[in-house]
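Write out the 3D structure for:
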Amino acid sequence: MDSIQPNRPTPPIKNTKVDTAAPSAQSVAKFNEAFSAPQIGSAFPTINERQQADDVLINNSNTQESYWVPNGAAPDAARAAALGHDISGSSPKAVNAGMEVGGSLFVGIAGVAVSGGGNADSSTNGCVAGTSCLQLGVGGFLGGSANRTAGVGTPLTSGTTDTWGVFVSAGDGASVNGSINVDTNNNISGVKGGAGPGIGAAAGVQFCRVEAKCTTP
């Protein structure tokens, strides 16, 4: 005869139904805020070139463009992007000035120029920099000079900057020279004029590289 087993309770069935309740207004607001904020990273066409290793790429969803700005200018640029301002990669400007010594040799259609010195800008950054240039044009010149320099652009920072511009040098024992260069963002990176011993004359275009070591406040 079969034994009678006592009734066993049925285990409860877990509720696996997905909660489809609408999200709260607070969660929606947080999502919208995160989605609309300017992002760090490439998302739109980039309209300028990176200048320093610590530059920050700002993604402006209002203007559908991305642009590099100096690290120190990133918070202001991000706020401007969030407000819909079209700053088009602009950043705070500073005037700089300094002094340097250098020399140049030009023969026929090509030459070189080197210089070194110090400068400071209106943002209280100070730099020691060396500049080397390849010059193309016409003439013949050999000389050295002490130069005054000036420029306007983004605040001075350490690193390498490529520029290009025009130059002229002339002298007959005592010489004068002058040049003006712009960088890849069309900042006037250097207006230079000086005098010193030299002989000959040359003029043309120049392509320069500036290596700078700066201190910031």
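DSSP finds two helices and seven strands in the chain.
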